Every structure is written in C-alpha cells, then in structure tokens.
C-alpha cells in the first residue's frame, strides 16, 4: 500500500522560503511510471497544481508558470522522498499544500495528508 | 492553460437520488479527465480517471462519461457519505488544471 507522509513548518514569514517534504512508502521516487506532484488549495484559488518531478531515464520537472520563478521540486533517492521549495513567499501563498502520486497521467491516486501553511510575520 | 468549468457550483439532493455534474474543458483533453471527491478537511480522493475508468475500490454507483471537451460524473443512488465536494481535473497537458468544484449537499 502506497503512502505519502508530509512534513514541514506550518508558519512561514513573508519573503522567506516555504519548504515541505513528502516521504514515500510502498513505491519509489525513481519509478518509471509514477510522477510526484505538489498541489495547493486555498479559498481564493481553489485547487492549484504547482508542479511535479518524474524519472524516465533522467529526471524531469514541470512547474506552473505562476510560480515557476520561485519553485523547486527535488527528488531525494537516498531517502525516497521529494520536496517542495517555494521562495519569496507572500500571504497569497497561504494554503493547504498536498503531495500526490500520479501514474501515467491517469489522475493522482495517492495523496499526502495535507499541510496547512500560513504566511505571516 | 486549459480552463476547466464545472456546473453546477452547488447541488442539493437526497439519499437515493441520482445526480449529474458536468465539466467542460476550454480545449481538447484527449480524455485525460479525472474526477475527485473531497470531504471536509481531507485530501481529494480519485474516483474516475481517463474520463470513464473507475478507480480501484470506488463504488460502482460512481461513473464518468464524455469525450473531447465535455464530461459528466454521475452518482446513482446517493449515499450519506457521498455528500462532499467534487472536482474535475485535466491531466492532458501541464499545468494540470482543476475545475472550481461542485458542492453536493442535502
């Protein structure tokens, strides 16, 4: 049974970097069929897909344009996890952040528990 | 980006009813269209992928149909646990995009 366990702070100061980690059990971050996604949800923006990483003989990264200059998603093979880093945050980045797995672009079938992140001084 | 528009935004129904939620994409999605259920305070749950394929473990009262840009989620014989918010998502091109949600309540 595949599970994703999120960790990271729930409070980040404006202009700082939001960093979250998603630990994978029951699958591999290097899987040749899975992609590893980050999504956020807020009342004002709804569900917003932020980006993903996946391995197909090499690592690939896709990011939504609205945060592309500020976001990095990194796989960590040694720990079998992946991370989200969003820098220069503002209160508009306040949201519930989720990690999720997708297989062959057929929907996100496994989700983390969600992390509520508030950007405030 | 592909814009996803769901209707209705909210829907009132009763246990045992049949309900239909629609999702329209601004461009073709090649049937890379997925449906999720989200209960309050929980992560979304995948119900339907590839427009009409039922995710493992999801009850058969949920079904999806449609093609190209117009899709439908149907729930037959509503159960109490089905009262939740439903989202469509296209996974054909990046960025993947979601509809604004349909809240189903009593």
| Beta-strand percentage range of chain A | over 45%
Largest beta sheet of chain A, briefly? Answer: 7 strands, mixed
Determine the mean pLDDT of chain B: 97
**Shape call of chain A:** globular
Summarize the structure.
The complex is a heterodimer of chains A (121) and B (106). Chain A is mostly beta strands.
Would you kindly provide a written description of the structure presented here, covering whatever features stand out?
The complex is a heterodimer of chains A (121) and B (106). Helix content of chain A is 0%, strand content 57%. Chain A contains no helices and 11 strands. In chain A, strands 2, 4, 5, 6, 9, 10 and 11 form a 7-stranded mixed beta sheet that branches. Chain A is globular and about 40 Å long. The N and C termini of chain A lie far apart (39 Å). With 106 residues, chain B is mostly beta strands. In chain B, strands 2, 4, 5, 6, 9, 10 and 11 form a 7-stranded mixed beta sheet that branches. In chain B, a hairpin with a 2-residue loop joins strand 7 and strand 8 (70-75). Chain B is globular. The interface between A and B is medium-sized, with 23 and 25 residues.
């Amino acid at each position: 049974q595949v599970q994703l366990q999120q960790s990271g702070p729930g409070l980040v100061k404006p202009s700082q970097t939001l960093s979250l980690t998603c630990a994978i059990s029951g699958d591999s971050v290097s899987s040749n069929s899975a992609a590893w996604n980050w999504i956020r949800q807020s009342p004002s923006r709804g569900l917003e897909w932020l980006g993903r990483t996946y391995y197909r003989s090499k690592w690939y990264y896709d990011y939504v344009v609205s945060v592309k200059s500020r976001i990095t998603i990194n796989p960590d093979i040694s720990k079998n996890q992946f991370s989200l880093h969003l820098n220069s945050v503002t209160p508009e980045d306040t949201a519930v952040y989720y990690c999720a797995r997708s297989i062959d672009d057929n929907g996100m079938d496994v989700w983390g528990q969600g992390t509520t992140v508030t950007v405030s001084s | 980006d592909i814009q996803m528009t769901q209707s209705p935004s909210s829907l009132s129904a009763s246990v045992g009813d049949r309900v239909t939620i629609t999702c329209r994409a601004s461009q073709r999605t090649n049937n890379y269209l997925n449906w999720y259920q989200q209960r309050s305070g929980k992560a979304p749950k995948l119900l339907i992928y590839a427009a009409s394929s039922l995710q493992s473990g999801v009850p058969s009262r949920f079904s999806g149909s449609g093609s190209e840009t117009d899709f439908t989620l149907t729930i037959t014989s509503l159960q109490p646990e089905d009262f939740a918010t439903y989202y469509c998502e296209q996974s054909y091109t990046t960025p993947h995009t979601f509809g604004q949600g349909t809240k189903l309540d009593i």
